[in-house]
Design goal:
The protein contains four helices and 13 strands. By secondary structure, the chain is mainly beta. Strands 1, 2, 3, 4, 5, 6, 7, 8, 9, 10, 11, 12 and 13 form a 13-stranded mixed β-sheet that branches. It is globular.
Length: about 260
């Protein structure tokens, strides 16, 4: 990957770091990635207008390897993730959730909070060659992360890693989600809901490539879910409120 930025300023008195117009992208094109990877892989590409890192002790980081940050604020992030699932999954890779990855870090790290606003995320997943990829996008994205740390010894379950997400799914459906991941545990909980009413047809660009399902009519009046999971399983409750729902199922031979 290559990375660049237009402007960087670190203020020693306040210990604040400011970066403007940060960007990163792969050095090779998608076909090169495909040829050089035996297993399924991801490609990331992103741009960020402003990044503010508050109360970042640069001397302690450079001299002692300790990363302590009070707050990270990101404005106008545009992130694209592409995943190729036409190749087999590397079963030798250990499945770790984000809080488990933090525990596995071998250096002290604590970030009080991360706040992202005015942002956009596009996720594409190719599961079969010759077919259109599944595409999910989140616009008007707001993200808040609290209590991100690698120093978890003795940390009670009452201080988990927390994530709150608000966005507009596929440009139409407002969603609100909260995730809690207790440190020193392999479990997590996630709760979420949609807001207002929306047309199911807004999901066609996601559902049609994924499972061949196309909504021809119908309104979503509410979706609520409450889940508990591990890296290997997920269980919980989901409630879907809808009206006038009609769908078409597309088969591989283009029949309906």
């Amino acid at each position: 990957y290559s990375m660049g930025f237009e402007h960087l300023r670190y203020t020693f008195d306040s210990e604040d770091l400011f970066i403007r117009n940060l960007s990163f992208e792969p050095r090779e094109d998608r076909e090169i990635f495909r040829k050089t990877n035996r297993f399924s892989y991801e490609i990331y590409r992103g741009r960020l207008r402003e990044l503010n890192i508050v109360d970042f002790n640069l001397d302690k980081f450079l001299n002692e390897g300790h990363l302590y940050i009070d707050k990270i604020a990101a404005d106008s992030l545009d992130l694209e993730i592409f995943r190729d699932k036409t190749k087999p999954f590397d079963e030798s890779r250990q499945k770790l959730l984000i809080h488990q990855k933090m525990v596995a870090q071998n250096f002290p790290m604590r970030i009080g909070s991360i706040e992202v606003q005015n942002s956009y995320l596009k996720y594409s997943e190719l599961s079969q060659e010759g077919k259109d990829p599944l595409v999910v996008d989140f616009s008007d994205l707001e993200l808040r992360v609290a209590n991100l740390t690698s120093m978890t010894e003795g940390l009670p379950d009452s201080e988990p890693l927390e994530m709150e997400i608000k966005a507009r799914l596929d440009g139409s459906i407002p969603v609100d989600m909260r995730v809690e991941l207790p440190y020193n545990s392999n479990t997590f909980t996630v709760k979420g809901r949609t807001e207002g009413t929306s047309n199911f047809s807004a999901l066609n660009k996601t559902m049609l490539p994924a499972i061949g399902l196309q909504f021809t009519s119908g309104r979503l009046n509410g979706l609520y879910f409450d889940m508990r999971g591990t890296p290997w399983s997920l269980q919980g409750n989901l409630t879907l409120l809808y009206e006038d729902l009609k769908v078409e199922l597309h088969k591989d031979n283009q029949q309906k």
